[in-house]
Structure formats: C-alpha cells, structure tokens
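Researcher: Please predict.
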Amino acid sequence: MTPYYQDEQATIYHGDCREIMPTLNFDVIVTDPPYGISWSRKANSKNRSSTAHPGILNDEDTTARDEALALRRSAPALVFGSFYASQPADIKQILVWQKGDTQGVVGSVTGYRRDVEPVYLVGGWPQRNVKWSSLVRSARGSWNDELSVTGHPHTKPLDLMRLLVERCPPGVVLDPFMGSGSTLRAAKELGRQAIGIELDEKYCQVAVDRLAQGVLFT
C-alpha cells in the first residue's frame, strides 16, 4: 500500500489497520484505540466554545481494538482504554493516567471527577528493575490548546505521549489508531521511527501538519 505520507522518521497510512498491519514491520505498539463505549458529544448551550461531535469510528464495541491487537505478533503494546469497557487480552500490567484538574467533569454525577483512564501494557514487555510509578500524569494541567489545534476530541497530551514512548522498548513504534498523530509526533521528538494508521482521512492530514512542525524537545 502507498503511504499517505512519509519522511525520514514517520510513515502514515490511510485505511483500516486490520488490513495494513500484516504488511508492516514494527517493534512496539503505542495506541489510543476506540474504547468501545459509543462515545459522542452534544453541544452545550451554556458553553459557547462547546461543539457537538458524532463520535469515533468503530467505537460501538472493542472489536476493532481486539482484532488489531491480535495482529501484533510478538510486539508489546501500550493501549489506552476505559474503565467502562472490557479489557484487552494478555495484560501484563495496568497504568493509570490521571488527567488535569479541569478534566472529567462532564458525565460525572457523584461529585468525583471522571479524570482517570487505564493504560494497558499488553504482551511481552521486557523485565526491568522498578523505576516508575504506575500513575502517570501530564506535566501540564490542561491541553485544551492541543485539542483546539487538532480538532480530535481524544487528542492525548504530547508531553504524556513523550513520557510513555520514551519508556517503551526500542525499535519502530506503530500506532494503528493514529488519530491526530500524538504518538508519531512524540516519537519524532525522541528521534524514534514511527508508523501511523488512521481510518479517518481528515486526521491523517492533521497528523502530517503536526509532524511538519519543528522539534522543540530532544
């Protein structure tokens, strides 16, 4: 398949990852797939900056995620998810991403913010000495500026993705559900080779634009 975009460090494919993955060589997966929670967003009449969003492709269940992970061969995978959906198979450990103080308000009715997400370490992760907490945070309290730039409602903070990619085993990073390209951008800033696959073409272009920006961190 012809790449949608390619440079010295990154390659992007537009299409279904389940069709493209068998043709690729990669060493580790870092991805934020559809969680299987049928997410969508209604416009908030009380917030003028709030816009409706119809939802994420293939988010009706975890089929796309699970079928893609079944194609990973022996590669370890780091997979974002939801506590309100089923877990992937072959979990080695679960991290918890704690979001910023402004996150997790919508949908909460108990007084507690819904401001955490599980991050699954799947498959054959290498054995290491203990170095890090299983609780991971973004260094920034909010990433609303990134969300406004990418237009993708689930864009992950770039500093968080740099942290996670940096701690992954060496080799080529694959993100089969690339979205706005945070994984590829983080890999570029760390000097790592990366491949992204995205079903929604408009986000392929968003990722290309982000990769074209100068690297601020090395």
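Model: The mean pLDDT is 89.
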